[in-house]
Structures are given as structure tokens and as C-alpha cells.
From TrEMBL:
Residue ranges annotated for the HTH cro/C1-type domain, each copy included: 20-75
Lineage top rank: taxon: Bacteria
Protein name as annotated: Transcriptional regulator
CDD domains listed in its UniProt record: HTH_XRE
InterPro entries in alphabetical order: Cro/C1-type_HTH (IPR001387), DUF5753 (IPR043917), Lambda_DNA-bd_dom_sf (IPR010982)
A Pfam family annotated for this UniProt entry: HTH_31
Spans traversing the lipid bilayer: none
SMART domains listed in its UniProt record: HTH_XRE
Single GO MF descriptor: DNA binding
């Protein structure tokens, strides 16, 4: 039966469709074969996978059986996602031992798909800007002295892999960083000097803009806290991301607009890119 009202294509709905499509492809099945199993025409299943129609819970369960997904955790994750595809405001994902939790959306997928990533950093430099030595020092500091070396190596490797989105030039990166971050030690002086030298180099890249927020800025943006804003290509909505001790939080447009407004305020209060580059270079020299 056709839907008379347009379906809201939330990011959750699209993420569910992407995962089910990938499972179908991995299984080597065509749209026609999978649709026949559900007694749909292939165009309807295609619309389900593109989030143009909402998946029914029973259909998701049937497709998981068809695609050979029998792991209880994977099934529970996708079934829960199916029941919550209508949500577009706030997603709360508790931290776990997994490097990334893709229950509701894969953070790496957001980074890879975004046309522009806007960052505000208040404690440490963002993963996309870190050197390997800075990344290792920050992981050890956050995880504590008892962290296993293989866990550190796994996290650092993943951080380095994530930087490919910037290196490839497909994604524009805009950053506002508190000046205190440039002076907060992660590792020894050599690590910090190397990190800020790389930051200076990145600031010269065509698709990277870095602004430093001095401590005497007239705006008091600390109330905003650190956040990331993903500008996505059509048909995906803009997404704001926050992370703290309670977990990870994602907000879709239009609720993400408050973060876009906050970011514009931060840019106005920060030094311009040229002044910021000079300050970063001078601070790197201070670490000598």
C-alpha cells in the first residue's frame, strides 16, 4: 500500500537502510531476489534501503534471517535501530570497550561522507589534527597507566586512518581551538613541538582553516563546550556531535542549528587564520 504522506528521512533510517543494503550485497543477492523473499517488488525494497519508505520490524527480522545474520548482538542492534528510525533529536550511546559503536550511526561514516567538518576543541587537539606521538600520549593519559599496549596501538592506528579524509582533500575542515590547548602538554616538549609544527603545515592546506581562540576573547564560548558539526551532502541532514563522560550524543537538523550558530560566534571571536598560524608557529617555538 503506498504511503500518502512523505516519509521523513532521518539519519537513523538511512543508516539502517545502508546496513541492510550492505548485508544484502555481502550475501551476493540482488534487489529482486531479496524482494521476492519478502513478497515485495524490487523497487519497494530499493525505497526501503534508501529510507524513502520505513522498514517494518518483521521485514527487518526476515531479512536478517535471509542474510544469515544470527549473532544475537547484531540482531538486537538492528532491530532496536528499526524501532527508533523516527528519532532525529538526541541519541545517547554509552561508552563500551569497542573502538567505535555503530549502533545508531558510524562516526567514521559521518567523517567520510561529510562535505565540511567544523570542530571546536577545548581540551586537546582533535583526532584529525594529531600526530602519532600526540595521539599516543593523549590515549595513555585518558585511558590511564594500566592501559594495555595493544589497546593503545589499536586506538592510535584508527586515529591515523581517520585522517585520510583530510589528506584526500574530499572534505573541508574548519577548526576553532582554545589557545590553552596549544600549551597543554600531551607528551614531552618534542611531541608538542612536532604537533604544533604539523598544525602550522595543515593551516596552509587549501581545504583546512584553523582559528585560535585567545583567552581574552570578548565572547565567553566555554558554555558551548567542545563539539563537532558535520555538514552532509543531500539527502543526509546536518549532524552535531558531542562527547562527554555520560556518552556520545548526536543531534540532527534542525536541532543542530544551534551549534552552527555557536560556531559562527566562535569564528568571530577567534583570531583570523593568518594570525592564528603565526601564533601556532610561535607557540611551537616556545616548546623548543
Amino acid at each position: 500500500m503506498p504511503f500518502k504522506e512523505p516519509v521523513k528521512k532521518t539519519l537513523r533510517a538511512q543508516w539502517l537502510g545502508i546496513q541492510l543494503r550492505d548485508l544484502r550485497v555481502e550475501r551476493g543477492m540482488t534487489l529482486q531476489e531479496a524482494a521476492s523473499f519478502l513478497r515485495y517488488d524490487y523497487s519497494s525494497l530499493g525505497r526501503f534501503e534508501r529510507a524513502e519508505l520505513p522498514f517494518k520490524h518483521d521485514d527487518v527480522v526476515a531479512l536478517l534471517d535471509l542474510y544469515g545474520v544470527f549473532d544475537a548482538q547484531d540482531r538486537a542492534r538492528l532491530r532496536q535501530l528499526c524501532t527508533e528510525t523516527w528519532r532525529s533529536d538526541q541519541w545517547d550511546v554509552d561508552f563500551s570497550d569497542a573502538v567505535y559503536d555503530s549502533t545508531f550511526v558510524d562516526y567514521l561514516w559521518l567523517e567520510e561522507q561529510a562535505t565540511t567538518i567544523r570542530l571546536y576543541d577545548t581540551a586537546m587537539l582533535h583526532v584529525l589534527l594529531q600526530t602519532r606521538a600526540y595521539a599516543e600520549a593523549s590515549v595513555r593519559l585518558v585511558e590511564g597507566p594500566k592501559v594495555r599496549p595493544e589497546r593503545v596501538a589499536r586506538w592510535v592506528d584508527r586515529r591515523m586512518e581517520r585522517q585520510r579524509v583530510v589528506e584526500a582533500g574530499r572534505t573541508r575542515l574548519s577548526v576553532v581551538v582554545d589557545e590553552a590547548v596549544l600549551r597543554r602538554p600531551f607528551g614531552d616538549a618534542r611531541v608538542m613541538r612536532e604537533q604544533l609544527t604539523q598544525l602550522t603545515r595543515l593551516a596552509r592546506e587549501r581545504d583546512v582553516e584553523i582559528r585560535v581562540l585567545p583567552p581574552d576573547a570578548t565572547l565567553r564560548p566555554q558554555v558551548f563546550g567542545a563539539f563537532t558539526l558535520f555538514e552532509m551532502p543531500d539527502p543526509y541532514p546536518e549532524v552535531a556531535y558531542l562527547e562527554n563522560l555520560a556518552g556520545r550524543f548526536y543531534l540532527e537538523a534542525p536541532r543542530s542549528q544551534r551549534f552552527a550558530y555557536a560556531y559562527d560566534q566562535l569564528c568571530e571571536a577567534a583570531l583570523d587564520p593568518a594570525e592564528s598560524a603565526k601564533l601556532i608557529a610561535a607557540t611551537a617555538h616556545d616548546w623548543s
